[in-house]
Design brief:
The chain is of the alpha+beta class. It is 32% helix and 22% strand. The protein is globular and about 75 Å long.
Length: 587
C-alpha cells in the first residue's frame, strides 16, 4: 500500500479523486464529495475498487506534477521500453455529468500498458453489473450507473474491465468515465481533448487572478488551488478533506469522516480566500455559513454537509480493512452533535472579516448576528466539548472562552464601524468579563502559560488563539510564555501536537501524529510575537513536509516520518496561507 503522501488530488469542484503515484485511482466519490465511494482501494485493496492505468511491466522511474496553476495532474513513467505520460483530470461540469478523464501519451519508445477498471459502488461493498456498449461499457448498481468510453478493445467480466495496449511515441489514447443516475440515460461523451483544454484554461485563469504577492507565494497559490478543489461551487461549502478514515494513528481507531464543512475553519477560510483576492468564493462561503448556521442559535452545529445538511449520523463499514489495517472505517461524524462554544466565535468572525474587508455589511445578516450574541450571552459560562471534539468529559476550555470573547469583540466592532443598533454598553461589559475570567482561570501564572482548560496543567496548541485572534497583543509576556510552553511541551522534533494524548482524557485509545495546522499556528504566533527568524525557520521546515505536489495531510508522524490523517487537509493549507501572510506582515 502506498503512503498517504504518494497520492495526488483531482476534482471538478463538486467531488474529488485520489490518484496514486503508481497510476491507480484508489478513491473516488460521485456525484458529491460525501457520496458513497465507488473506488475504495485506499481503505482496502483492489477488491474494493480501483482504476489502474500504468505500464504493464517494471517501472524504473516516476515523476509527476500539476500543470502550472492547475489541478491537471501529469505522471511520467519511465520503463526499459520507453516513457509514457498519463494525464488525469476532472473537468468542471457546467451542467454536464461528472467525469473523470485519463489521457495516455507515448513520449518515447513503445511501452506496453495495462488499464484495469474495477468499480465497487457503496464504499466497495457491491460488485456491479457490466454491459458492453459500442464505445466501451456500462456499469450499474442500485442508484449508480457509469459509462467508460474508449476506442480500445476491452475485456469484460464482472470483476473488472481491462485493456492491454501499447503506448507509442507520438500517439494518444483517451479514457472517459462518467456517472449518472441508473434510471437515466447515459450522458453524451465529451471529447477528452477539448475537455482538457477547457479545464486547463479554467484553472489557469483562476490561479492567474491570485492577488497575493507576499512571502512564499508559490506555496500559498498551491494551497489556494487545493482549497478551491475542496470547495463545492454549487453551495460554497469547503470540505475539511475529500476522504474518510485515513488514520491519525496508523493501525489505530482515530479514523474520522472529514467530507463535511467545519465551522471551526470558517475565519481561516475566509481570510485565506480574501488574501488571494477570491472575493466571490469568500462571499459564497460566508453565505453558506450563515445559511447552515442560522435559525435557532441553540441548534448551531460544529459541522454540516456540503449542502448544509444537519444529520451526519456516524456508522462503521465493517467490510473494509482500513488504511494499513486502521479500523474502524467510519462514515458520518458523531461529533456533529457536540456542543462547541467556539463555533459561535467562528460564525461572528466570518461576518466581521467579510464586512471589514469589503467595507459593507449585509443588512439581512445583522439580526442573525445579534441573535447569536444574545444566545452566547446566556451560555458562555457553560462547559463544552472543545475545539478538538474530545469524546471525554465537558470542560471549561480556554480556547472556547477566548472564542466567546471574539463573539462580543467582533460584533461590537461591527456595530461601531457601521453605526448599527446594538446594546453596546452591555456587550462591552460581557466582553470585559470574559477577558478577565480567561486571564484569571485559564492562565497558569507559575508556569507562565495559558492551559487547555480552567485549572488544568495540560497544554493545548489551541491556547495560541490568545494571540491569533487578538485577545492579547503579540508583545504580551503571557503570549511569549504560552508560545514557549506549547513549543517545549507539545513539540516533537519541532512540530506540534494538538495536546498530549497521554495526559488529556479525550475518550480514545492510542496517540496521533503532530498536527500540521497547529504547527503553522505556532509559526504565526512567533511572527506576531516578533520572533521572525524562528517563525521563518519553522515555516520552511513545514513546507519541507509537503509531498511532491505541495499537498499536506492533517498530521505528520515524526516517528515514522510520514503524513497521516485525511488528505489533503483544508485546515493544514488554510493555516499555511495565514502563516505566510503573518510572516509577510511582520517582515
Amino acid at each position: 500500500m502506498m503512503r498517504i503522501e504518494d497520492y495526488g488530488l483531482i476534482g471538478d469542484l463538486q467531488s474529488a479523486a485520489l490518484v496514486g503515484r503508481d497510476g491507480s485511482i484508489d478513491w473516488l466519490c460521485l456525484p458529491r464529495f460525501d457520496s458513497p465511494s465507488c473506488l475504495t482501494a485506499l481503505l482496502g485493496d483492489e477488491r474494493h475498487g480501483r482504476w489502474l492505468l500504468a505500464p504493464a511491466g517494471e517501472v524504473t522511474g516516476t515523476s509527476r506534477r500539476y500543470r502550472p496553476g492547475t489541478l491537471v495532474l501529469e505522471t511520467d513513467f519511465e520503463t526499459a521500453d520507453g516513457t509514457v505520460r498519463v494525464t488525469d483530470f476532472m473537468p468542471r461540469r457546467g451542467g454536464r455529468a461528472p467525469q473523470v478523464m485519463r489521457i495516455v501519451d507515448g513520449l518515447a519508445g513503445r511501452v506496453p500498458m495495462r488499464m484495469e477498471l474495477a468499480l465497487r459502488p457503496d464504499y466497495g461493498a457491491v460488485v456491479p453489473w457490466v454491459d458492453r456498449m459500442v464505445d466501451g461499457v456500462r456499469v450499474q448498481s442500485g442508484p449508480d450507473a457509469f459509462h467508460l468510453s474508449t476506442t480500445l478493445e476491452l475485456s469484460v467480466d464482472r470483476e473488472a474491465t481491462t485493456a492491454d495496449f501499447t503506448a507509442v511515441e507520438g500517439a494518444r489514447q483517451r479514457f472517459v468515465l462518467s456517472w449518472h443516475p441508473s434510471y437515466a440515460d447515459a450522458p453524451p461523451v465529451e471529447d477528452a481533448d477539448s475537455a482538457l483544454a477547457r479545464t486547463d484554461a479554467f484553472w489557469r485563469e483562476w490561479s492567474g487572478r491570485c492577488s497575493y504577492d507576499g512571502a512564499y507565494r508559490d506555496a500559498v497559490l498551491t494551497s489556494l488551488i487545493a482549497l478551491k478543489a475542496m470547495t463545492d461551487e454549487t453551495t460554497g461549502a469547503v470540505v475539511a478533506a475529500p476522504t474518510t478514515s485515513l488514520p491519525e494513528d496508523l493501525g489505530g481507531v482515530r479514523n474520522w469522516d472529514y467530507r463535511y464543512c467545519w465551522l471551526r475553519d470558517s475565519v481561516l477560510t475566509l481570510n485565506a480566500l480574501l488574501l488571494g483576492g477570491y472575493t466571490d468564493e469568500a462571499l459564497a462561503f460566508r453565505d453558506f455559513a450563515f445559511r447552515a448556521g442560522t435559525g435557532d442559535p441553540a441548534a448551531l452545529q460544529i459541522m454540516y454537509g456540503v449542502g448544509g445538511e444537519r444529520r451526519l449520523d456516524e456508522f462503521e463499514l465493517d467490510w473494509l480493512p482500513g488504511y494499513e489495517g486502521s479500523r474502524p472505517v467510519r462514515v458520518g461524524n458523531a461529533a456533529s452533535g457536540q456542543f462547541q462554544l467556539d463555533v459561535y466565535g467562528e460564525v461572528l468572525g466570518v461576518a466581521f472579516v467579510a464586512a471589514d474587508k469589503l467595507g459593507r455589511i449585509d443588512p439581512g445578516n445583522w439580526p442573525r448576528s445579534r441573535a447569536f450574541v444574545e444566545h452566547v450571552e446566556q451560555i458562555w459560562r457553560e462547559p463544552d466539548d472543545g475545539i478538538w471534539e474530545a469524546r471525554g468529559p465537558r470542560r471549561h476550555y480556554t480556547q472556547s472562552k477566548v472564542m466567546a470573547w471574539v463573539v462580543f469583540d467582533r460584533t461590537i466592532r461591527l456595530a461601531e464601524r457601521f453605526d448599527l443598533d446594538a446594546p453596546l454598553d452591555r456587550w462591552r461589559q460581557v466582553r470585559q468579563e470574559i477577558h478577565a475570567e480567561v486571564c484569571e482561570k485559564g492562565y497558569d501564572s507559575q508556569r507562565g502559560t495559558f492551559t487547555q482548560y480552567y485549572g488544568s496543567k495540560e497544554l493545548d496548541a489551541a491556547a495560541l488563539a490568545v494571540v491569533l485572534v487578538g485577545f492579547l497583543p503579540g508583545s504580551d509576556p503571557r503570549v511569549t510564555g504560552t508560545i514557549d510552553a506549547v513549543r517545549d511541551g507539545l513539540g516533537h522534533d519541532g512540530f506540534i501536537s494538538r495536546y498530549s494524548t497521554a495526559e488529556t482524557d479525550d475518550g480514545l485509545p492510542g496517540t496521533e501524529g503532530q498536527f500540521l495546522a497547529c504547527s503553522f499556528w505556532l509559526a504565526s504566533a512567533l511572527a506576531l510575537n516578533g520572533r521572525l527568524d524562528e517563525s521563518r525557520e519553522l515555516f520552511e521546515r513545514l513546507l519541507g513536509l509537503t509531498n511532491d505536489l505541495g499537498l499536506l495531510a492533517e498530521e505528520y508522524d515524526v516517528a515514522r516520518q510520514r503524513q497521516v490523517g485525511n488528505f489533503p487537509q483544508a485546515f493544514s493549507h488554510l493555516a499555511l496561507i495565514n502563516a505566510a501572510a503573518n510572516i509577510s506582515a511582520a517582515s
